[in-house]
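so my prof wants the structure for this chain in the tokens format not the other one, which i didnt know existed until like an hour ago. anyway here's the sequence
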Amino acid sequence: MAGPKGHGTSLGAALNDLLRAQVTPRHRLSTYNAKHWHAQLSQLTGTRRGYEALESAGLDVRPDTVIKWLSDAEYNVRRSYRDLIHTAYENVAIVPAEPIPDHVKNGQFEISGIVKTGNDERERGTRRAAPLRIDGRRGDWSDIEALWVAGDLRDDDFEDHFIDDIIVADIGEGTDGWEFNGDSYAVELR
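here's what i got, hopefully its the right format
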């Protein structure tokens, strides 16, 4: 039975495609794009979550003060309060990444595309050569997870860490390291 697949122009892009199909990455809500403190405060005070974010950020003012601020966009609000409003706004605007699930970290990965180690370069996942099979359980996912949670898991980083931390941990360095120089990859999770 076929599992979920990721496709991309590099191994890292295919891995990221696969992961993003499994869990939600860190992202910004499209409705949170206000720049001015007044617009941010107006949006925050429109929801309970916004009020909670203001409280968590440390904004401790009386309700009538907030009403004064909302009634006049030119009101002279102290810089420290504007910073707290901005912090609360960003805390609501950014949705954290879901953690990488165990079924991904413990999965069997089948990589199709150009794979090179030493003098052996071939297209894997064809009738002539089986996909490169990697056991994710043997690897160390901590660096990949840290980049994922921070929203900084770029394709190149994912590929580098997957090679160093997952492939090498499972099947070793190869003849002379691992290279994925093709322009089309598919990764299937089993």
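also thought this was worth mentioning. Residues 7 and 168 are 22 Å apart (CA to CA).
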